[in-house]
From TrEMBL:
Composition bias type Low complexity, residue spans: 387-400
Originating species: Chryseobacterium taiwanense
Domain Multidrug resistance protein MdtA-like alpha-helical hairpin: 101-169
TM segment ranges: 7-26
Domain of life assignment: Bacteria
Protein name listed in UniProt: Secretion protein HylD
């Protein structure tokens, strides 16, 4: 009998221990401490911007070609060569054109000789016609022959001028001061000038000034204006930001995969010569910029005190703790004064640890920062959210002997109700 009594005592003691552990680990309420996250309004710049991609290219590029056909005899410049206006770049073999010039010159001498003969014949026929030795028809024939001879001389003269011009075109000169970007021919290569002029060299006028050919989406192009500030980066210098300005918004759209884009030209300084033609630029165009204004984080306007904040701090106007709570005067005021356009509200904490609601007038909003027109002071501590630290009343991070250890939630941001940082 005594053995059975002891056995029941053991079972009762074990049950008490199990119930105590369940209460301790699962039923007992946690003590939650919260730490408000605050910021103060700051003065600075706020802006709206759009992003685009584009290609770096020289402001002015000239394609140097040839108007005559022939074999490249000599090339005097190469890639990256710096050239001056009028500098000889290359020559074509002039022999064939030289021969044509000599042949046409011989034809000219023949035409001049024929003209001289017809002039003598016309003078003789004119004298005979005056004394009535020949008919009017013979006189007209002599006059026509001299006119034909003169026209022949003029025609051959024009052919000779053309031949001399073509001969001079065998020398290829630079039309501008600049840098040779591309050389498309080699010595000994034959070039044929027909309907399209072949490009021998590409010359950039001034590589210290570049432009970016940006492709801007149709949804953003309405806010882009000439003169707006732009910044961009290139993959070659990912940690360096280059500055520029919008110089032109072209009205000709381009369509790719049913997406409409507009070409926007951006001028940029390249005194350091770091930018190379053809680089891909990641561009930010600032469509609206305000300087020296008061601004706060956008997360400040989305913070609303929840039950954890109300439990620890006094609020002004007073808020009820809980979903239903008491309908006090403060609650009615919040309902009546709903936020309108260009108007919002933030919560600030004072030195007396009272959380106060302030209504503010807002301006520009770029989804990250908001301009404050009025309603705040520079010294206000604006609440943007809070961090909660949860632990058992014993103060230790105890582990349940019956359940697997839960993941650590000791330092976590509050949810949407607490207005934690987003």
């Amino acid at each position: 009998m005594k053995a059975k009594s002891k056995k029941w005592l053991y079972w009762i003691a074990a049950g008490i221990i199990v119930l105590g552990a369940i209460w301790y680990f699962f039923i007992k309420e946690e003590q939650v401490n919260i730490q408000l996250e605050t910021v103060q309004p700051e003065m600075g710049e706020i802006s709206n911007s759009i992003t685009a991609t584009g290609t770096v290219q020289p402001v002015d590029t000239v394609a140097v070609g040839t108007q005559v056909s022939g074999i490249i005899k000599n090339i005097y410049v190469d890639f990256n060569s710096t050239v001056k206006k009028g500098q000889l770049l290359a020559t074509l073999d002039p022999d064939l054109l030289q021969f044509q010039t000599e042949q046409i010159n011989a034809n000219l001498q023949n035409a001049k000789s024929n003209l001289a003969y017809n002039e003598i014949n016309f003078n003789r026929q004119s004298q005979l016609y005056k004394v009535g030795a020949i008919s009017k028809a013979d006189y007209d024939v002599a006059q026509n022959q001299i006119n034909v001879a003169r026209a022949q001389v003029n025609s051959v003269n024009a052919q000779l001028s053309t031949a001399n011009k073509n001969l001079s075109l065998t020398n290829i000169y630079s039309p501008i001061d600049g840098t040779v970007l591309n050389r498309n021919v080699s010595e000994g290569q034959t070039v044929a000038s027909s309907f399209s002029t072949p490009t021998l060299f590409s010359i950039a006028k001034d590589l210290t000034k570049m432009q970016i050919r940006a492709s801007v989406d149709e949804a953003d192009i309405g806010n882009v204006k000439v003169g707006q500030k732009a910044t961009f980066t290139v993959d070659a210098f990912p940690n360096e930001t280059f500055n520029g300005s919008v110089s032109e918004v072209r009205l000709q759209p381009t369509v790719s995969s049913n997406v409409v884009n507009y070409t926007t030209m951006i001028n940029a300084d390249n005194s350091s010569l770091k930018l190379k033609p053809g680089m891909t630029a990641n561009i930010t165009i600032y469509t609206e910029v305000l300087d020296n204004i008061m601004k706060i984080p956008a997360s400040a306007t989305s913070f609303k005190p929840d039950s954890l904040v109300i439990k620890k701090y006094k609020t002004n106007p007073p808020l009820a703790n809980g979903k239903k709570g008491k309908k006090g005067k403060g609650s009615e005021q919040i309902k009546e004064k709903a936020d309108t356009e260009n108007e919002s509200s933030v919560w600030v904490i004072g030195k007396d640890s009272i959380v106060t609601r302030k209504r503010i007038k807002t301006g520009m909003d770029n989804d990250t920062e908001i301009q404050v027109v009025s309603g705040l002071n520079k010294s206000d501590n604006i609440i943007t959210g809070y961090k909660s630290l949860s632990k058992k009343s014993s103060g230790g991070s105890a582990k349940s002997p019956f359940m697997p250890q839960r993941r650590n939630t000791g330092n976590k941001s509050s949810g949407s109700g607490g207005g934690g940082p987003r």
